[in-house]
Design goal:
67% of the residues lie in helices and 2% in strands. It is mostly helical. The chain has one domain. 45% of the residues are buried.
């Protein structure tokens, strides 16, 4: 393939993951959330635990589609690398700005350094540079080294429980009170988007890069085989190294990445080949902007004390009919609906906000 091709299926899949992020991040009440819409407490997984891995997987797919033709045509590597680094830095800075806004308006005790966008930026930089400077064979070897090396680090690092695992210990040293959780009396910290567990997240994005190369070459059978193989291997490996989203274990990488590859293959067949509507595409072409805008919306509503009155006034009448859980879900769906309208308007006007 000599030119870059945009796949509506990739935009749709990316958009659906963003919509799912907004859904699970914005319930009407955190006290009443259906179990599938919550993260697993520690080991194991729920449908919610698939959302962020799917997004990072699609980051890798998108890099393969964006740079594949340019790399094959011999485009200057230095220029492409600068593009990757600049965009990664913008994503990371945006994540820090959003955390600063939350710290200021919501009067949080400390400013949190790690975060979702920060992890996305690191993965984008890593996989972007890997796609530019390493051949596919070396990329596969790097993926294997990351998976095995990180698994050894977690296993040899001691406990895999929340308190005492090597990722939390190191993140506690690196970030201290500027992480997601910090107990000053014991010096114990933990962050689900910490730096150490990002080693697993890098593997997810790298697996997406390799899947994206198969998609570019229209090797859909191989893509499906990759998905099935990874998912099965992940479940087998989980007997020794548990599936864990917060640690982003190597078994979790393979399980979620395998499901991501299967979802990509299915979306490609249905949308690109069979002509099904690309549901979610509006979110997909403005993914980071939608995530950041929704974050700011939530922070402003919470920071100015408007969230609870809005929820009670606009959705209180639902509780007698659907119960508190249904009422909370209705708010989350309405929140996603508002942002679906916003990104749809942006798409119709040809506006794509790139970070």
């Amino acid at each position: 393939m000599s030119v870059n091709k945009r796949f509506a299926s990739v935009d749709a899949l990316r958009g659906l993951t963003v919509a799912a992020m907004l859904l699970v991040n914005n319930p009407g009440s955190w006290s009443f959330v259906y179990a599938p819409l919550e993260h697993s407490e520690w080991h194991g997984w729920t449908p919610t635990d698939l959302i962020f891995p799917f997004f990072l997987f699609i980051v890798g797919v998108s890099i393969a589609l964006a740079f594949g033709a340019r790399i094959e045509s011999g485009a200057p590597t230095a220029a492409m690398a600068r593009t990757v680094i600049k965009r990664a830095c913008r994503i990371i800075v945006l994540g820090l700005v959003l955390h600063g806004l939350a710290w200021w308006l919501m009067h949080k005790p400390e400013f949190r350094i790690p975060g979702v966008l920060q992890r996305i930026g690191l993965c984008f930089a890593f996989v972007g540079l890997v796609s530019i400077y390493l051949r596919p064979r070396a990329q596969w070897l790097l993926l294997a080294a990351l998976l095995i090396g990180y698994a050894c680090l977690l296993t040899w690092g001691g406990s895999l429980e929340k308190v005492g695992n090597i990722a939390s210990r190191w993140d506690g040293v690196l970030f201290g009170r500027f992480g997601y959780e910090w107990v000053a009396a014991t010096g114990v910290g933990h962050d689900p988007e910490g730096l150490v567990s990002t080693l697993g997240a890098l593997s997810t994005a790298l697996l997406g890069l390799l899947a994206g190369q198969l998609l570019r070459r229209d090797q859909i059978f191989n893509l499906i085989a990759l998905g099935l193989g990874c998912a099965m291997l992940g479940m087998v490996w989980a007997e020794w190294l548990p599936l864990n989203k917060q640690l982003w274990t190597s078994s979790f990488v393979l399980w979620t990445g395998g499901l991501g590859a299967l979802a990509l293959g299915l979306a490609h067949q249905l949308i690109d080949k069979a002509g099904w509507p690309a549901v979610g595409r509006s979110f997909g072409v403005n993914a980071i902007a939608a995530y950041a805008g929704a974050w700011m919306c939530t922070v402003v509503l919470e920071g100015f004390g408007l969230m609870k009155p809005l929820y009670a006034g606009a959705f209180g009448w639902l509780e007698p009919m659907v119960g508190p859980f249904g009422q909370s879900l209705a708010f989350a769906l309405a929140f996603v609906g508002v942002w679906a309208l916003i990104v749809r308007v942006l798409e119709r006007r040809g506006i794509s906000i790139k970070v």
